[in-house]
Amino acid sequence: MVFNLPKLIGHRGVKDLSPENTLYSINQAIQLNLKWIEIDVKISKDHIPFLLHDDNLDRTTSGSGNPIKYKYKDILKLDAGSWFGSRYKNLYPPTLHEVLNFCSQQNIGVNIELKPNKGFEKENVEAVVKLIKNFNFSCEQYFSSFDWPSVILIKKLLPKSHVGILIESLNKKNDIIKILNKCKKYNFFSCGLNAKFVSIEVVELCKNYGMQITVYSSENFKIIDANNLWNIGVDSIFIGNPLNYRNILK
Ligand code: G3P
Ligand code: MG
Fold first, then answer.
1. I need a labelling partner for 47 at 20 to 30 A (CA). Which of 35, 54, 206, 225 fits?
2. 85 CA distance to ligand 1 centroid (A)?
3. What is the 215 CA–ligand 1 centroid distance (Å)?
4. DSSP annotation string for 144-183
């Protein structure tokens, strides 16, 4: 199945409006009319894929340390909302299973970013693949990662899936050509670029290789910057707060 990504993808739900990577934030993204959301996924000690951005639990939950040390039943007990505001104290880090069920019910596309615990990259992919194969969720999905072995392995295990690489930095023009050749080799469909190095030249090169282009930033995009990116050929922008984008999200 070929799909075209939308102009806006909710970043970790809508991370600037409510606690990232929670069902609450995903639901808020849906209420704001986003049709796709992005989430960060890694595994617990018992290899349950769940949502968390960072390498450790400290910033966004009431837990601490590396999540690979905890069974999901203990991660479920954590408060994943109070860090953002006291009214979110009942939120928890959801499983990927719950999120894909919810997004299937709501007919929302999901970009699953594979964000493995270090040293557990293979186990992370295997757990996600097992879930996808067992449940055959109806929502559209695509996979991405900054970690080449993760995206290469998921494409191998799920050959019909859509897979893209994320790129944090580019030093020379040559780098992007090497990356694009690797994308072609593994039949990836998208490149996710850090806004810091996006230029007309880079976008044109990606387009010449038939890639769909997504752009992310830790800061929310101003509408003027988003328009510039779409005008030069960027397909999708990860957005943490889409409140100024009502014209696009009609
Ligand atoms: O997938 C785009 C974006 O989510 C990558 O950066 O750090 O927010 O996961 P990060
Ligand atoms: Mg992410």
1. 35
2. 22
3. 9
4. EES-HHHHHHHHHHSTTS-EEEEE----SHHHHHHHHHHH
